[in-house]
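User: Can you recover a sequence for this backbone? Please restate the input before giving your answer.

Assistant: Of course. Working from this structure:
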C-alpha cells in the first residue's frame, strides 16, 4: 500500500510549481491549435521534450538500459502515457474548453485506483477507496452532463476522448510499476518519450505534412512551453516530488491543476464554464480527498490524543 509522507516546504513549493506548469499547458496547447494540427502538436511535444531529457541524462551521465525488453517497455509506455492521451486530449481541446479538459483530466486519479485494484494485489478497493471512486465518477458525470453524451456531437465526443486519455494515463501508471521500476526516472522519461517519437513523428508527417517553419511567435512560444516546461521540466519535477513526498501526496497536484487552467482559460481565451462543470469538479475533488484519506487519519489521531 502507498505510504503517506509529510510534505516539506520544498516539496510544497515544487508541487505548486508543477501544478502551475501543467495548468498552463492546457492554455498553450489551445493557442497552438489555432495554427497547427493536433497530431503535429503532439509530435512537437514529445520530440523537443525527448531531446531535453536526453540532454539531462547525458549531463548526469546516467547508465542506459541495454535490455531489449526495457526498450520495448519504453515503446509501450510511450503509447500509453504520451501518444494516446496527448492525442485524445489535444483533439478534445478543439471542441471543449481548456478548463473542462483539465477537470476531466483529473479523473486520471480515479481511473488509477480502479486499474491498480484490478492489476495489483496490494491495491485492493477498501470501503474508503470505493467511496472515493464512486464520488469521483459522480463528479465526472456531473461535469459532463450525461444527457449531453446522448447527442454524439463533436463536443460530446471530445469529452469522451479526454476521459479516454485519462484512462490511458491510469493504465500507463500500472505498466510503469510493472515493467520500469528500478530505472533512473530521467532515463525512464527520456526512453518513454523516444518511444512516443517513433510513433508521432511519422504520423504527423503522413497526416499533416512537413512541419511549418513560418509559425507565428505566439505559436512558437506555446510549443516551447508545452514541450520544454509542460513536459520535460514537469516530468523532472514530478519525479522529484515523488521522491520527496510519495505518490499519495502527488494526488494534490490533481486538485490544483484545474483551477489554474480554468482561470487562464477565462482570462486569456474568455472561456466560461457551465455551473455543472464547477459542481462536478467539487464532487470529483471530494472523491479525491476521500481517496487520499489524510483527513480521516488526522481525525483519528486527534480522537486518540
Amino acid at each position: 500500500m502507498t505510504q503517506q509522507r509529510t510534505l516539506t516546504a520544498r516539496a510544497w513549493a515544487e508541487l505548486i510549481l508543477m501544478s502551475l506548469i501543467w495548468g498552463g499547458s492546457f492554455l498553450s496547447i489551445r493557442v497552438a491549435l489555432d495554427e497547427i494540427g493536433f497530431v503535429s502538436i503532439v509530435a512537437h511535444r514529445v520530440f523537443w521534450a525527448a531531446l531535453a531529457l536526453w540532454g539531462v541524462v547525458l549531463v548526469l551521465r546516467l547508465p542506459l538500459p541495454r535490455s531489449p525488453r526495457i526498450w520495448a517497455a519504453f515503446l509501450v509506455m510511450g503509447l500509453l502515457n504520451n501518444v494516446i492521451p496527448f492525442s485524445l486530449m489535444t483533439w478534445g481541446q478543439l471542441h471543449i474548453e481548456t478548463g473542462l479538459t483539465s477537470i476531466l483530466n483529473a479523473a486520471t486519479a480515479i481511473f488509477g485506483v480502479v486499474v491498480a485494484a484490478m492489476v495489483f494485489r496490494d491495491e485492493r478497493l477498501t470501503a474508503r477507496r470505493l467511496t472515493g471512486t464512486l464520488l469521483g465518477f459522480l463528479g465526472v458525470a456531473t461535469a459532463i452532463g450525461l444527457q449531453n453524451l446522448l447527442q454524439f456531437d463533436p463536443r460530446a465526443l471530445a469529452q469522451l476522448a479526454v476521459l479516454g486519455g485519462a484512462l490511458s494515463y491510469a493504465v500507463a501508471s500500472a505498466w510503469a510499476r510493472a515493467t520500469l521500476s528500478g530505472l533512473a526516472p530521467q532515463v525512464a522519461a527520456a526512453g518513454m518519450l523516444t518511444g512516443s517519437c517513433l510513433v508521432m513523428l511519422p504520423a504527423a508527417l503522413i497526416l499533416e505534412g512537413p512541419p511549418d517553419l513560418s509559425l507565428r511567435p505566439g505559436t512558437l512560444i506555446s510549443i516551447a512551453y508545452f514541450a520544454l516546461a509542460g513536459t520535460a521540466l514537469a516530468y523532472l519535477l514530478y519525479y522529484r516530488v515523488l521522491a520527496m513526498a510519495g505518490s499519495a501526496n502527488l494526488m494534490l497536484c490533481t486538485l490544483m491543476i484545474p483551477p489554474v487552467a480554468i482561470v487562464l482559460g477565462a482570462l486569456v481565451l474568455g472561456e466560461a464554464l457551465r455551473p455543472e462543470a464547477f459542481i462536478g469538479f467539487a464532487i470529483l475533488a471530494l472523491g479525491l480527498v476521500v481517496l487520499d484519506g489524510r483527513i480521516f487519519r488526522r481525525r483519528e489521531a486527534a480522537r486518540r490524543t
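That completes the design. The mean pLDDT is 87.
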